[in-house]
Specification:
The chain is an all-beta fold. Among the domains are: about 80 residues, no CATH class; about 140 residues, Lipocalin, CATH 2.40.128; about 120 residues, no CATH class. About 0% of the residues lie in helices and about 45% in strands. It contains no helices and 62 strands. It has a six-stranded antiparallel β-sheet, with no helix packed on it. β52 and β53 form a beta hairpin. The chain is elongated.
Length: about 700
């Protein structure tokens, strides 16, 4: 409510004059006058007006809007509140309709308050004590504003204004947070993240990086700067971003950060007694009956002891030994068979129900559970299925194999220049890669060729051939223009990937009419055998390939026995054949011989290999120099980040498998000296072993 700061009286005391002798019918005020003592005049007594019977000799007529009041020993007419005294004697009281005759200063305005009219403080101002001025009211400091909690109050003359804080928007009375990260208003440098913060979002360097996040962050080498201290059983490992303590080879990372490394990471089976050539491994894609399963196949001569319990005795020069292991490395079943000559394991696989599939090269008839497989003359390749208990389910002749391959005791019949192999999808169907000159596959007719042609075929879980994809050469000359199939892999849905090549003097004609030039190529087929895409591939030939649900991974290294030593690099492709990423797995001292690549259920990539010369250090996984014949296992995640790497000196690795839970199995052979895996686990000299590494 406006406060009166100055005022002027509405009336002034009325002064009597002889000329103004008028009979009063209303209230009057008689002031001191020479004729005031006359008996016929009006008197004010006790503040009221008393009127004589006769007309007063000296008096005034008060306005109807005035009252008689005692003043200075006399009386006066006073205009009522809200009226102006026009003649200053209370005789003419008019309503106050404006302040045209009053001028007020800043912060004031004319107004009528009670019985006064004058300058009052306007809204936003307050009177100054003992002063006629008005001063601005600071609503901000007194908390009289209604600004948002995320707004600034700005005091102004005759009021205030509100302004949202930085990082907020609105009218000041209502402010809402602005997410600069989502709106892309805030741009951060390389290896920096835009972090939403209430009020003002900000750029922060990624974990393991330092510097100016707006300009770009650089990797912090915590290992080199001794910022990260690891226990004795772990090694400080430089990685892109934050460095990590990684438990050494056989130790288990109890807490997942390398702070506690327990001696229970590794399990080991040692097979002794017989002469063993190669161990083939395959892990079931899913747990069978609540437990994971691992299939093992090998060729042996003599008495094989410690192979899943009871000793196995060969009949011919080299027989086949099979075994399946379950939870806690418990052997579920084992068996052996063979002809009187040298038989070879070409490849092995196991499906999600525990059925084992063996691609066998037999040099003569082989009897299994009362059935005779193979032929007396020449070589024969067969696909054999064993049920979850190890019994024979069915067998399928694949193709004649006719490449001579030199072995210990002289020439033996070896599969053709095609690298025969098998792959199994999530439904239990089998995909085969083999070489063919023609003939048939279980009733499926194959075209006649003058030179060996690579064939990819799909066989149902019941043993029925479904389709065959042949890579025919365009040459008619025998022995020329051979198409080779180097590696075959399949994902869980049945998409297959083939790495092949054609001789320099010919090209490859695909079923759809597509021509592939001489040299290496990679092609992808859908589950029905249709061609999805092809792309040429540069030399040298990748050492291994493995399918993942989002594409395919290839392991690149130098040609056989390359000098100087080669690096191992993983090249990832998308499902459409486009490049995804390249990442090093190991550096130096590596041979293409006995190097392998597998993918885990979570998309991780696992690489194993053997270095015939001292292995140099790989900065990404810290594979340190451990001397001649060092074997390594390295693990990268699906985005190419190195997780860990371990070396096992004095060994040669043969094959690699990864279980659905991420457990890694590596099969190999120790040289002529005993080998210590650590944690009290050792092997005798010349032993064949199976290592199990927990994730």
């Amino acid at each position: 409510m406006p406060v009166v700061s100055t005022f002027q009286p509405l009336v002034t005391p009325a002064r009597c004059s002889v000329a103004s002798l008028i009979w009063l019918a209303a209230a009057c005020s008689i002031l001191n006058h020479p004729q005031a003592a006359q008996p016929d005049r009006r008197e004010c007594a006790g503040g009221g007006c008393e009127q004589d019977a006769g007309p007063p000799p000296c008096g005034v007529r008060c306005s109807p809007h005035a009252s008689c009041e005692a003043a200075d020993g006399g009386a006066r007419c006073v205009c009522a509140a809200g009226y102006l005294d026009v003649d200053d004697d209370g005789t003419d009281c008019q309503p106050a309709r404006g302040c045209s005759n009053i001028e007020c200063g800043p912060g004031r305005a004319c107004g009528v308050i009670g019985d006064t009219v004058g300058c009052v403080c306007t809204e936003g101002y307050e009177p100054v004590v003992d002063d006629a001025d008005c001063r601005d009211v600071d609503e901000c400091t007194r908390g009289l504003d209604d600004c948002d909690e995320h707004a600034f109050c700005i005091n102004e003359l005759e009021g205030y204004s509100c302004e949202c804080e930085r990082g907020y928007e609105g009218d000041g009375r209502r402010c809402r947070d602005v997410d600069e990260c989502e709106s892309s208003e805030l741009r951060c440098g390389e290896h920096a993240l835009c972090v939403f913060v209430p009020g003002i979002s900000e750029c922060r360097c990624e974990l393991g990086y330092e510097g100016n996040p707006r300009a770009g962050c650089r990797d912090t080498d915590e290992c080199e700067q001794s910022l990260l201290r690891c226990p004795e059983r772990a090694v400080c490992t430089a990685l892109p971003g934050p460095d990590r303590c990684i438990c050494r080879g056989y130790y288990t990372d109890t807490h997942g950060d390398g702070s506690v490394c327990a001696e229970d990471r590794i399990s080991l089976a040692v097979f002794s007694g017989a002469q063993i050539h190669d161990l083939f491994l395959a892990a079931a894609p899913r747990a069978v009956g609540g437990e994971e399963r691992l299939a093992v196949a090998s060729e042996f001569r003599g008495e094989l002891r410690d192979f899943c319990g009871s000793p196995l005795q060969s009949k011919g020069k080299y027989d086949i030994a099979l075994a399946v292991f379950g939870a806690d490395d418990r052997c579920l079943w084992a068996r052996s068979f063979g002809s009187t000559e040298t038989d070879r394991v070409v490849d092995v696989g196991i499906d999600a129900e525990g059925n084992l599939f063996l691609l066998l090269h037999a040099s003569g008839p082989v009897e299994i559970d009362g059935q005779t497989l193979g032929v007396a003359e020449g070589a024969s390749c067969s696909l054999i299925k064993f049920d979850p208990n190890g019994g024979l389910d069915w067998s399928l002749p694949v193709s004649s194999c006719s490449r001579v391959w030199t072995y210990d005791d002289g020439p033996i019949v070896r599969p053709s220049i095609i690298t025969e192999s098998l792959a199994i999808d999530g439904a239990g169907d089998v995909y085969l890669l083999f070489g063919s000159l023609g003939g048939e596959l279980g009733g499926l007719v194959l075209a006649e060729h003058l030179s060996y042609t690579a064939v990819v075929a799909k066989v149902s879980r019941s043993g029925m051939p479904l389709w065959a994809f042949e890579l025919a050469s365009d040459t008619s000359q025998a022995g020329a223009g051979v198409t080779q199939g180097h590696y075959l892999t399949a994902d869980s849905t049945g998409n297959t990937y083939l790495l092949g090549s054609a001789a320099s003097e010919a090209s490859v004609a695909l079923p759809d009419g597509t021509q592939l030039g001489a040299g290496l190529f990679l092609l992808a087929l859908d589950p029905q055998g249709g061609l999805r895409w092809t792309r040429p591939w540069p030399e040298p030939i990748p050492a291994a390939i493995a399918a993942a649900d989002d594409g395919v991974r290839l392991l690149l290294t130098g040609p056989d026995n390359q000098l100087p030593p080669a690096d191992a690099i993983v090249h990832a492709l998308h499902a459409d054949g486009g490049d995804a990423w390249l990442a090093p797995a190991a550096h130096g001292g590596l041979s293409r011989i006995n190097i392998d690549l597998k993918t885990g259920a979570d998309g991780d990539v696992i690489v194993s290999g053997t270095g015939p010369v001292p292995a140099a250090a790989d900065e990404s996984v810290r594979l340190h120099t451990l001397g001649l014949g060092s074997c390594f296992v390295a693990r990268l995640d699906r985005d190419a980040n190195a997780l860990w790497g371990h070396l096992f000196p004095g060994r040669q690795f043969w094959d690699l498998a990864v279980s659905p839970s991420g457990k890694i199995y590596v099969a190999g052979f120790d040289y002529s000296v005993p080998a210590d895996f650590g944690g009290g686990i050792e092997t005798d000299s010349g032993s064949t072993f199976l290592i199990g590494l927990r994730p």
